[in-house]
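User: For a teaching handout, I'd like to show students what a predicted protein-ligand complex looks like in token form. I'll give you the sequence and the SMILES for adenosine-5'-triphosphate. Please answer with just the structure.
Assistant: Understood, here is the input followed by the structure.
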Amino acid sequence: MPKLAIAKGCLQQFGELDRPLREKITETLVAKFEAATHTGIHMEKIADARTPRYRSIRIDQFYRGIVLAPETGDVYTLLTVLPHDDAYAWARRRDLTVNRATGAIEVRDVTTIDETLPQLVKAAEATPERLFARVNDADLTRLGIDESTLPIARTLTDTAQLDALKPVLPETQWDALAGLASGLSPEQVWSELGAEIVDEPYDTDDLDAAVARSTDRIVLVDGPDDLMAIFAHPFALWRIYLHPTQQAVVDATFRGPARVTGGPGTGKTVVALHRAHRLAQQTTESVLVTTFTSTLTDSLHAGIKLLATSPEVLDRIDVQHVDKLAHQIFRERHGAPQLLSSADETQLWSSIIERLELPFTEAFLAAEWRHVALAQRVSTAADYLSAKRTGRGRRLGANQKAQVWQALWEFEDTLRERNLWTHETVCREATRLLEERDDKPYRHIVVDEAQDLSPERWRLLRAAVSDGPDDLFIAGDTHQRIYQSHVSLREVGIRVTGRSSRLNLNYRTTAEILGWSLQLLRGERIDDMDGQLDSIAGYRSDVHGMPPTTKGFGTQSDEVGYVADTVQAWLDSGIAPGEIGIATRAKRLGTKVQDELFKRGVPVRSLGKAKDAADSVSIGSMHAMKGLEFRCMAVAGVGAKQVPPTAAITPVEEDVQTHDRDIQRERCVLFVACTRAREDLLVTWSEEPSPFLVPLV
Ligand SMILES: Nc1ncnc2c1ncn2[C@@H]1O[C@H](COP(=O)(O)OP(=O)(O)OP(=O)(O)O)[C@@H](O)[C@H]1O
């Protein structure tokens, strides 16, 4: 029985068509493949096609699909859908070959390559520079560059020429060249290709075997329902086509906790979602997918719903905010907790300070309680005396420690006496309850945005799943840490050493925006949650665009006006309101921009509030941008007075280390906001620019 496979490029093109045409194509293909079961598929041969195995399939009066017919087997691969004449021209210009390194199928536009080569040779005569001078032929060949591509690679003098060849060169060969051009070594490119070392070379004439190997570019459709599901979400390419390095992490079996790291937009969430889905397919027990905010939880939930087409599998996946899980476990035993408000907490610290006549501030004691006592499960004076106070800066002598411990003890004692709880103590109690249980609620736990979870939340998760293969899977990037939590995974009982993978290729942002944003963090020493330093080296994007626009103004009202003008210009150029995001550090400025846009009749919403996300420009704090992305992004109010905000920074004289950590965190917050942009980034300020921007503007 014939089976249909769909190439990634085809689904991308399909997503750009009008909805009625998309519906028509879907209907036609479903009907054809249903009919094929009984009567075979009717397809036309194409005269003068580059390969005699191309066939055309009629979609309607105007549109044709180009299909690769099998020589052996029964898989028909839909390569493209285009207006009639373009479809036939496509088939005449493009050939299919098998990549020597990966054994996967590749499309190349032979006609354009033949036309371009003489021009490239001519341009190269004018300059001695060669883009790949440092890479020898043997390495290029090992990376799959074949004899047709090699002469082209050897004439290239700059990356702009390589970029221009992207639509015409064989995809995997272009990826390998782009990796080398961005500074990766041949070894690094080899490992990114995810190429399996084979004993025997691939049969480069066997296109059918190559199709079967190309799971990162060709998806095999599993019946009409699957076809409808694929075509219903043509923009969610991540759902179907994973990069080999992503796929390897999704499919791996780990003997214990494992994690994936990587820069912004490298697909960590995508990997986490696929992995959760795969684990849920393989077990009959529950799988938890979790993170630290409810907005992120909602978007993980939406992702899981896109992936899990089987209701049984979907049922097995519980997507829950980690605090909600803590409260749920707590309530099952104790009922609803009575929570201490943050104002009451400050008041309580203040009364303890007064009563004990202590020389500490409320903020200092609260932080000491959270970052030392709770983080390290300190329950006695002796524990506290020997607890690590890394990152707490201000040194305490023995007497001072005794005073602090007395305050912490009184604080907890009051909570106990009045039966009051904070989110942290609820979490601690839930952990205790889970640690007592043999029947853990989950078989697998997948955690996204791991860098922002506090130690007590990690302990909760550790206690919610039994030790075992694939128990915990963690996705995160410490360069995007936007809250206070500095966790050593080992200290919370989670060992990932030797089970850590890294993703480098950014799918979201242009190379220009990524490169600019990475400079915000240059020189920062950022831990990797496992006793080492993380690094930004090697993160890259193969997509190019405009560099970010940075602009300062004399007054805030001029700045607001400019941001509103820019949003209007984006809208006028055809960008949908839902594809535009605006981030500010302080809410007040966000409100001003929102009012200005509202005055101009632009639909606008505060993040997380209105439901009609697709129809409105989104405004939110830089923190609220975590996990989101927008085609166009304005990051406003990046002035010296606002970024970093004085109130968020511990004064140097109070605590040097905490001060430094606060500054680093604020850099990360700005980095997160800027890396939400896919195509266009505007960064503005009034008066003096933020010190973080000074080297960049
Ligand atoms: N294999 C893929 N094919 C197509 N698109 C992909 C792929 N992997 C990731 N993407 C897209 O790249 C973007 C970023 O992915 P994702 O959110 O998973 O990255 P991330 O590493 O979690 O980012 P961040 O850390 O910045 O939140 C998304 O738009 C996602 O759909």
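For the handout, you might add this sentence: Residues 237-238, 241-243, 246, 262, 264-270, 477, 480, 507-508, 627, 629, 675 surround adenosine-5'-triphosphate (CB under 6 Å).
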